[in-house]
Write a structure and sequence with these properties.
The structure holds 3 protein chains of 3 kinds. By secondary structure, chain A is mostly helical. Helix content of chain A is 72%, strand content 0%. Chain A contains 14 helices and no strands. Chain A starts with a helix and ends in a 5-residue tail after the last helix. In chain C, strand 1 (22-24) and strand 2 form a beta hairpin. The chains are: A mainly alpha, B alpha/beta, C mainly alpha.
């Protein structure tokens, strides 16, 4: 499972001709730490890193809020055309994502948000995937818990916030992980919407390291390693917190 | 679930979308003003090659010597997504002021009237088309109007590895080599050194690098001059394709599968191929490879005649640019001798400005770079029509079965020509 | 939420549906051509091949579900040390930067010097040029797809496992149930909502195969015509050949196909998915 990563790491410490040599070089001999330095020369790494962080935080927060509301509505509320709306929402997942690109671009253009972080973030806070994901989670919660709360005199909002949300915490944390990863690696949309190098997220910066005919793969590997590392660290930290969070919430079922 | 306010705004603005769409098609007379040193403007310049950014920054600095108040911002988008992004911008009237174009996509943008004609620059004497290879000027001319300033001139030549030739006891290539010389040498090297995994020749089997050149050398053609008929079924063109099929069948070249697996430059740069056809852009890469000291360059061998395709990028200006005079001034500077020599000195390929090509030759004196620059004399433009990409896909789909020997070359060429003719006929409608 | 979805997503889907009945070239206006594109679709042999490839790919990737259930259960066992560490390892395949990891896999699948063939040679098998041979290329792409999907599946399934009440295991242990019995009678049935979700998403994602194919094989690969997926075909028509009308028609085909599969899954859901009532 991890072999490709180990190799990526090795490649990021090799020279470019070692990376593309045949037969492959498995160990570079002299480690090329300079590859990492060259990343900073090639792209404004820190600026782009912060863009990545901010779009990821905003999209994740937006999705957690909106998708938990939508998921609860689909799973538990009765409203007209519920099934139709649910079906339409799912249908969004069924077309190639490139279908959305030009229309979304024109909406963002009309809103005057081209080349802004808001423009990058906006379409991504609405997620059909997240809504579906949370719907499934809410459907897995026993109805009795909700009824008990209703008998205790809670209104629907209170039930949602005080009873249901804590119960779907594992789902929310899984959705958060998935959204963070998706947003961090998202390439095409930010690439199309941003034109200013310092407003681009890291993925776009990394992609621009590829040439048409020739690419310095060693530097590309080093840059990718640097881009993945923060996500990995974040996830290792979150692992602890998520597990602790579940344990301390007293969730037993 | 409640509807918040912001999405309503979105709905309203979305309704306004239908107003967006295609651009104007009419070509108007050129009475537009040109920029001078007092012009104040800020323009965007989109490119796809990140390697060019630092040298282009130097070009901008030089440009600002003449036009101190024109601010130029470079935008880099990788090639894989460059035209997807450009298409989105073109559909929304947000194209960058100046951008890089290739001959493959040129007609689509020209046809739809998205590019500003160069006529004012030519009339003003700021730009003289005779300074560039005619083949490139032809590539960027649409309806008799020049729409792009050639930036570089990518011809194809042949790299060879002196050490492998010596090991196999074969004389190294000369500029008057014929197809037979190449075949014999490639076969001998594969026979002698095949046990070590070395092939006589490896070339990526694309039109630009491989078979367009051999088709021309055999006296064939890819597309008729009126762009209405395919030349793939011409007997001479079939010979040009057969050239590669034979090399593969004799083991002088890796198989189609091997080449899909390991691109030719990787094989050559690792000393696994003694020869390779490749473009002028490959100099920097070979120079950095383990075979740098034993590599050199020769002209492509001759068949019935000499032949090579030349392609190159051009700088074009968006017709919708709000800073047309400034954009044009920068476009002209990119193609000027001064601008071209800054680029050529960085070893990023052969400049389009003919008199500047010596700078490229001098940038790697250890190699016979003239093999690339001399090819301009007999080069043909890279073949394009309005739907180039559509018939290029047909080539990718059909030709591998001809090169691998799975189907007779003539059959494949016939099918390719007839399907390409259908596309060309549909295009003419 | 719904209005955001409507504006940013449903409106583009609806306009694509409209454009599928037009001849729409890039930058140009669209003119209504009725069913022309759909007639062309029915006769297009490339579409048939792309559909077969897409189904094969999806089928292989779906193996990641049973595999994921077993692995998720193994790494979520109570009392297992470093369980977080295992989760991170599996997540790594999902967080990989596609551009970088594709290069690694390309090297691994090399015919002459690849690691995969080296392993095969140890057991006396002469491996093919994976990425240059019909079917093998599709298989190689599917393996990488499976590797990525597994990371995704395990995150979801592990989250689902954490939702299963511990009392159930304690009670069954008192009844003398062993690990395997617990896995069959408690873990799997109570995990079915998550399995169902993963199934739906994997089928949808499988049908949308594009990025992976594009970066592993590269568009000029000679086996691409035999290996391409429906979305690849859509992309070629829409953004390379610039026949956006026909591209829209292929997008509609993809929508209808996934729609059918997904609604079938929802119809059969009640037969095997257990929601705690």
């Amino acid at each position: 499972m991890v072999f490709p990563f180990v190799w990526q790491l090795v490649m990021s410490l090799s020279t470019n001709s070692q990376v593309t040599s045949i037969p492959p070089t498995f160990w570079p001999g002299e480690l090329q730490w300079a590859n990492f330095g060259r990343v900073f020369e090639s792209i404004p790494f820190l600026d782009q890193f912060w863009v990545s962080v901010s779009i990821t935080v905003l999209r994740t927060a937006g999705q957690l809020l909106l998708c938990s509301l939508a998921g609860y509505a689909f799973a538990r509320m009765r409203f007209p055309f519920r099934r139709v709306i649910f079906g339409l929402t799912l249908s969004i997942l069924m077309v190639p994502p490139e279908v959305f690109m030009i229309p979304q671009y024109q909406i963002i253009q009309n809103l005057g948000l081209l080349n802004t972080t808001t423009g990058v973030v906006l379409p991504g806070i609405f997620s059909a995937f997240g809504a579906f994901f949370m719907t499934q989670f809410f459907r897995g919660i026993p109805v009795e818990l909700e009824e008990a709360a209703r008998l205790d005199g809670c209104n629907p909002w209170q039930i949602f916030i005080k009873v249901m949300l804590p119960l779907v915490k594992p789902g929310l944390s899984a959705l958060a992980v998935l959204t963070v990863v998706w947003s961090w690696n998202d390439l095409l949309w930010p690439l199309v919407v941003t034109t200013d190098t310092t407003k681009m997220p890291l993925t776009v910066g990394l992609a621009s390291l590829q040439g048409q005919y020739t690419t310095d793969y060693a530097v590309l590997m080093a840059a990718s390693t640097m881009a993945v590392a923060p996500i990995l660290i974040l996830f290792i930290i979150m692992q602890r917190r998520v597990i602790d969070g579940i344990a301390s919430s007293g969730l037993k079922g | 679930m409640k509807t918040s306010r912001i999405p309503l705004v979105l709905v309203l603005s979305a309704l306004g979308l239908s107003a967006c769409g295609g651009g104007g098609n009419e070509q108007s007379a050129s009475e537009e003003p040109l920029a001078d040193e007092t012009t104040q403007a800020s323009i965007d310049y989109a490119i796809w090659n990140a390697e060019q950014q630092p040298p282009l920054q130097k070009v901008i600095d030089a440009f600002n010597g003449t036009y101190p108040n024109i601010d130029v911002q470079i935008q880099v988008t990788p090639y894989e997504q460059y035209f997807t992004k450009l298409q989105t911008q073109g559909s929304s009237q947000t194209l960058p002021d100046v951008f890089t174009m290739n001959s493959l996509n040129f007609e689509t943008y020209a046809e739809n009237g998205l590019l500003a004609p160069l006529t004012p620059l030519v009339e003003d004497g700021q730009l003289d088309p005779s300074n560039y290879p005619q083949a490139l000027i032809d590539s960027y001319t649409f309806d008799d109007t020049l729409l792009g300033v050639p930036q570089n001139s990518q011809t194809i030549a042949m790299w060879y590895n002196e050490q492998l030739f010596a090991e196999a006891g074969v004389d190294t290539p000369t500029s008057d080599w014929t197809w037979d010389d190449l075949r014999t040498a490639a076969r001998t090297i594969s026979d002698e050194l095949g046990d070590e995994g070395v092939f006589g020749i490896a070339t990526d089997l694309t039109g630009q690098q491989a078979y367009y050149n051999t088709i021309l050398q055999a006296g064939g053609y890819i597309l008729s001059d009126d762009k209405e008929t395919s030349g793939f079924d011409d007997p001479a063109s079939i010979e040009g394709l057969q050239f590669w099929t034979d090399l593969i069948a004799e083991g002088a070249s890796p198989s189609v599968r091997q080449l899909a697996d390991t691109p030719a430059p990787q094989m050559f740069n690792s000393g696994r191929a003694a020869m390779m056809f490749n473009g002028a852009w490959s100099v920097a890469e070979v120079q950095d490879s383990p075979v740098a000291d034993v590599a050199d360059i020769a002209a492509l061998p001759q068949g019935e005649e000499r032949g090579v395709v030349v392609a190159g990028t051009a700088a074009v200006v968006s017709r919708a640019s709000e800073e047309l005079p400034a954009a044009r001034a920068f476009q002209a500077f990119l193609g000027s001798q001064e601008g071209q020599e800054i680029l050529a000195g960085e070893g990023l390929g052969n400049p389009a400005f003919l008199e500047s090509q010596q700078v490229f030759v001098d940038s790697a004196p250890q190699y016979n770079i003239e093999a690339f620059t001399d090819a301009s004399e007999y080069a043909s433009p890279y073949p394009t029509s309005g739907d180039t990409t559509a018939w290029n896909l047909l080539e990718t789909e059909l030709l591998p079965s001809a090169f691998s020997g799975d189907r007779p070359v003539a059959d494949v060429a016939g099918e390719l020509a007839s399907r390409m003719n259908d596309l060309l006929a549909a295009e003419a409608d | 939420m719904f209005s955001g979805i409507a504006v940013f997503y449903l409106y583009p889907v609806a306009s694509t549906a409209y454009y599928s009945f037009t001849s729409w070239e890039v930058f140009g206006g669209a003119s209504f051509t009725g069913l022309t594109n759909y007639r062309r679709l029915l006769e297009d042999t490339d579409v048939v091949r792309a559909l077969v490839n897409t189904v094969v790919y999806t089928g292989i990737v779906l193996l990641g579900i049973p595999l994921g259930v077993v692995l998720a259960a193994l790494i979520s066992r109570p009392g297992l040390r470093f369980s977080g560490g295992y989760r991170v390892i599996f997540l790594m395949s999902y967080i990989a930067m596609p551009v970088a990891i594709a290069l690694v896999w390309r090297q691994m699948f090399k015919g002459d010097y690849g690691v995969v063939n080296w392993f095969l040679s140890l057991i006396g098998v002469d491996g093919p040029f994976w990425l240059g041979t019909e079917w093998y290329a599709l298989f190689a792409v599917s393996i990488v797809g499976l590797w990525i999907a597994l990371g995704f599946n395990i995150i979801i399934l592990a989250a689902g496992l954490r939702g299963i009440p511990k009392e159930l295991y304690e009670a069954s242990a008192l009844d003398g149930a062993g690990r395997m019995t617990q896995f069959r009678h408690i873990t799997v049935p109570l995990l079915t909502p998550s399995i169902f979700f993963v199934l739906v998403i994997n089928v949808i994602a499988g049908f949308k195969l594009f990025d992976l194919l594009y970066i592993l094989l590269e568009p000029t690969n000679p086996v691409m015509p035999e290996t391409q997926s429906l979305v690849f075909l859509f992309y070629n028509e829409s953004f390379v050949v610039n026949d956006k009308g026909y591209g829209a028609t292929i997008a509609m085909l993809i929508l209808v196909l996934i729609g059918i599969f997904t609604s079938l899954q929802f119809r059969w859901e009640k037969r095997w998915v257990h929601y705690v009532k």
